[in-house]
Amino acid sequence: MIGTGLMARTHTNGYKRSGDFFPELEYRPVLKTVCARTEEKVKAFAEQWGFESYETDWKAVIARDDIDAVDICTPNDMHANIAIAAAEAGKMVLCEKPLARSVAEAEPMVDAIKKQVLPTPYFIITVVFQL
Length: 131
Known about the structure:
Elements: H1 6-21, E1 33-35, H2 39-49, E2 53-55, H3 58-63, E3 69-72, H4 79-88, E4 92-96, H5 103-114, E5 124-127
Parallel strand pairs: 1-2, 3-4, 4-5
Helix pairs in contact: 4-5
């Protein structure tokens, strides 16, 4: 999880509650790490929500071998850089809406995903939540 704002809390709650809604699922999300720039803030978030660890640099999250998917819950102007780097590192990418601020900004994100070698070759998700 990259980010600790409202949508990060919403996504985390969804991951934690997935078994309540889908008890038949064989696999459950594992909250490996959360990332934000302020250590005090991200440490508190990790403790509150049950993440195994925390980081203060999103590039460190992407570099980790134990991270399979990156959920981007940052301000919109940060989505593209994180999504492209995550895709290039072979991570599954989940991104809060809007995917990007423009089509020109979104196209390189999609291109990076298309280059991945994953079980599902085209794997980008714009997560949409309505409160």
